[in-house]
């Protein structure tokens, strides 16, 4: 038994060395190689294209359904050890829970608290719908694509690798036959005669040719099955689009309902007086200081709360704490006064002013 294993090991090592020599000679251009027919090459190219794009589409779809890379790695590991994936909440569900907690904290009887509760409940429904879509998309596209890559495509790649091995063995046998024929008519001082070497080489060639042809036929049949895989992937694509369309339709319905609910709630009153946002982004500019006396046309005085740089030619530059004369513009624009400072006149934003005269 040990002798048999040693002989088999030596034979395998000799075959591997022969393949390495053959491949090296082909790359150096000193040896010919057996080429497959054009139909087979087209099938092989289609297989490579299918493998490449299926892997890309699978990766892209997983990234869409599970944007967090850490979660994708975790899911992959759980799948490998055949354990159930963790039932984690989506970002929408976390947002919804925090909005609901905030709404309860502010008070459901307040306008803001009531709105937070309504929006939070909608976000939770969106999160649940998203979870259902991810499950449907995983079933319709992720699972079939991964099964194809790990099953059919892996078999094809294995058989193509075996075919390449058979092809190297065949070409190595062809080289041995050519060398044996070139030795005919010469005398070997040691070992078998050239005729015996040639007969053995030709016998090895016939065996190698038969094994190569058989493997080529097996591989070709597998490659031709790629067409049916495309049809299966097309069905998967249809199912994916249908589940995605349902998901977006449900989301649109939820958002329309939320908009109607919010629009039926009392509108908040605009804040009176200046707000913090009114004081941001202003710079100091040179201005003239008014004497503080009201003119007949501008009957009220106002103090400037914050520096303001005019944004158009019909506005005044303002400096904090200066006193100007103002009046209503009369055009229904509640955001601006008409201001007067000496001989200068122009629009000024009300948020930057504190009216001193009633």
TrEMBL record:
It comes from the Eukaryota. Residues 297-358 form the SH3 domain. Residues 274-296 have a biased composition (Low complexity). Residues 262-296 are annotated as: Disordered. PROSITE patterns: BAR, SH3. GO terms for biological process: membrane organization. Residues 25-271 form the BAR domain. Keywords: SH3 domain. InterPro entries: AH/BAR_dom_sf, BAR_dom, Endophilin_SH3RF, SH3-like_dom_sf, SH3_domain. Coiled coil: none annotated. GO terms for cellular component: cytoplasm; membrane. Belongs to the endophilin family. This is Endophilin-B1. The lineage of its organism: Eukaryota, Metazoa, Ecdysozoa, Arthropoda, Hexapoda.
């Amino acid at each position: 038994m040990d002798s048999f294993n040693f002989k088999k090991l030596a034979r395998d090592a000799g075959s591997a060395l022969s393949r390495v020599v053959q491949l090296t000679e082909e790359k150096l251009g000193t040896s010919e190689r057996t080429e497959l027919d054009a139909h087979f090459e087209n099938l092989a190219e289609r297989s490579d294209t299918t493998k490449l794009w299926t892997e890309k589409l699978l990766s892209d779809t997983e990234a869409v359904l599970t944007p967090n890379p850490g979660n994708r790695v975790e899911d992959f590991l759980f799948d490998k050890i055949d354990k159930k994936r963790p039932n984690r909440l989506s970002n929408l569900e976390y947002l919804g829970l925090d909005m609901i907690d905030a709404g309860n904290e502010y008070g459901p009887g307040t306008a803001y608290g009531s709105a937070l509760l309504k929006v939070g409940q909608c976000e939770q429904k969106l999160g649940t719908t998203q979870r259902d879509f991810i499950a449907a998309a995983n079933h319709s596209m992720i699972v079939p694509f991964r099964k194809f890559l790990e099953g059919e495509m892996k078999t094809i790649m294995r058989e193509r690798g075996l075919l390449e091995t058979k092809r190297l063995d065949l070409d190595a046998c062809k080289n041995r036959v050519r060398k044996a024929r070139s030795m005919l008519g010469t005398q070997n001082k040691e070992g078998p005669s050239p005729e015996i070497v040639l007969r053995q080489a030709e016998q090895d060639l016939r065996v190698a040719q038969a094994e190569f042809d058989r493997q080529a036929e097996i591989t070709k049949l597998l490659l031709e099955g790629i067409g049916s895989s495309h049809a299966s992937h097309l069905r998967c694509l249809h199912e994916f689009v249908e589940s995605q369309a349902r998901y977006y339709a449900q989301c649109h319905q939820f958002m329309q309902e939320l908009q109607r609910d919010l629009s039926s709630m009392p509108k908040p009153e605009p804040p009176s007086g200046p707000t913090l946002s009114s004081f941001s982004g202003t710079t100091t500019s040179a201005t003239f200081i008014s004497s503080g006396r009201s003119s007949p046309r501008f009957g009220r005085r106002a103090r400037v709360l914050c520096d303001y740089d005019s944004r158009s030619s019909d506005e005044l530059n303002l400096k904090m704490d200066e006193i100007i004369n103002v009046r209503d513009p009369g055009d229904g624009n509640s955001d601006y006064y008409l201001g007067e400072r000496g001989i200068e006149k122009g629009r000024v934003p009300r948020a930057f002013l504190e009216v001193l005269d009633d």
